[in-house]
Specification:
324 residues, alpha/beta, Quinone Oxidoreductase, Chain A, domain 1, Rossmann fold, 6-stranded parallel beta sheet, globular
């Protein structure tokens, strides 16, 4: 039998319920995966609350790691016994075992633990496309990044520094400032929507930044726009404070011919080949010591609601995983 977290209604963390399901045989192109660790991401919270479309009832979760237990017809990419991880849909990673498309599995080396793989794959691929595709960060780039003390920030800061960027980090509280500097930030600001843009201008001697990575949304949107240099890019990719407001196109013009984008992981991993290419870049960065998996807390699968509560409230400071 399989234990899995299911969602039958949108709402607070308590809507996550543990159910017992039957094992299934993999079909064409599928594997049956016995999971060892499960990644928890803020997108899971957004889905659980109904802020992103999801048909109910449903499983939840997009990231996990484990061993292939059985393969269906036509599967050649992996075989029984392989150590694998994944970081895209279909949803349903909050489970002890599950069906999953074989072409979306990423083989992992023995040197990378299941826990670390589940903590880094989703956030690592997100960091990879943000830093290398959405905006090609390189030597001389100056960027502003919110949430540097969180799980994604722990990956993006050292990777951006490795690429040659100057990183201005934004944290939510004074207690996170020291951690942000230890990660490699050149400057750290505690978020204040009223003063952030002027602080950025002061730090950069009026030049402002080339690119802003903003997962906050509504509360930070205006400050992010005002922190950009002429023809700079605002990358709005989250909504932890609510959906960002609509913007008049003329505003982008008057603020200096700015660019604005709203990227997603799905659009950057739409094909199996692109997905595998990004995942391999993440694994290579881990192998080279550029990024390091850091787990803030591990919870039993049955405590998924507590994990969500800690993530949503801001109590967490780094990656969270569930253990089947």
């Amino acid at each position: 039998m399989v234990s899995a977290i299911r969602v039958t209604q949108f709402g607070n963390p308590e809507v996550l319920s543990l159910e017992t399901l039957s094992e299934q045989s993999p079909g064409q192109g599928e594997v049956w995966l016995e999971q060892e660790a499960i990644g928890v991401n803020f997108l899971d919270v957004t889905l659980r609350k109904g802020a992103v479309a999801m048909a109910l009832p449903s499983g939840i979760g997009l990231e996990g790691a484990g061993r292939v237990a059985a393969v269906g017809a036509g599967v050649s990419h992996v075989q029984v016994g392989d150590r694998v991880a994944y970081a895209t849909g279909p949803m349903g990673s909050y489970a002890t075992a599950r069906l999953y498309p074989a072409e979306r599995l990423v083989k992992i080396a023995d040197a990378l633990s299941f826990d670390d793989a589940a903590a880094v794959m989703f956030k690592g691929i997100t960091a990879q496309y943000l830093l290398k595709a959405t905006y090609p960060v390189g030597q001389g780039t100056t960027l502003l990044l919110y949430g540097v003390a969180g799980g994604l920030g722990e990956i993006m800061v050292p990777w951006a520094k490795h690429l040659g960027a100057t990183v201005i980090g934004v944290v939510s509280k004074q207690a996170s400032v020291e951690k942000a500097y230890l990660l490699g930030c050149d400057e750290v600001l505690v978020f204040n929507a009223e003063s952030l843009a002027s602080d950025v201008a002061r730090i950069t001697r009026g030049k402002k930044v080339d690119v802003v990575y903003d997962p906050i949304g509504r509360a930070s949107f205006q400050a992010s726009l005002d922190s950009l240099r002429p023809r700079g890019l605002l990358v709005s990719f989250g909504a932890s404070s609510g959906a960002p407001p609509a913007v008049e196109l003329s505003t982008l013009n008057t603020k200096g011919s700015l660019y604005l984008t709203r990227p997603s992981l799905a659009a950057h991993t739409a094909t199996a080949s692109e997905y595998q290419e990004r995942a391999q870049d993440v694994l290579a960065a881990i192998g080279a010591g550029i990024i390091k998996p850091r787990i803030w807390a591990s919870y039993p699968l049955a405590d998924a609601a507590l994990a969500h509560a800690d993530l949503e409230s801001g109590r967490s400071s780094g990656a969270i995983i569930l253990k089947p």
